[in-house]
Amino acid sequence: MEGGSAGKSVLKVLKKCAIFVDVRTDDGDDAGGLFVDMLRGLGARILARVGQSCTHIVYKNGSASTLTRYRLLNDPKPLVVGIAWVVECVEQRSRVDEVKFKVDLEMVNIAGTNKVCSVQVVLYTLMSLRSTEATFYASEAYVTGCWVKSHSSQSLVRS
Length: 159
Prior knowledge:
Elements: E1 2-3, E2 9-10, E3 18-23, H1 33-41, E4 45-46, E5 56-60, H2 64-72, E6 79-81, H3 83-92, H4 119-128, H5 131-143, E7 147-149, E8 156-158
Parallel strand pairs: 3-4, 3-5, 5-6
Antiparallel strand pairs: 1-2, 7-8
């Protein structure tokens, strides 16, 4: 451990991690400050934006620009984890395995919007439209990132 200027001790368990934090409330307000402080207390380097040097993204209700920047990165891409990963690292006082804390960026909520559509609403709408209108509706759902759950396979499919 290394002593801080205010008498706080800083662990170095995340010293090899360069982390971007995008945590927001459902209304889109920044709520990442607490997680930034926790990560710094574990020795992580906090980044101002997603970039190629980024090893992790802590994401909850983040902005669309974070998703865009992530998708534009070359491989290997950073690990995208939820806030529970940060909490678990603090509780364990070590870097915990990220696997069970991974965030699927294809199914995330973007702050202030709801990107997951009700399957009943989508199916009802498609059944009530003529085929050309249904095709347009399905295309629009794809463009806006709307997802539906397939009844037959119970897997997530893009409409």
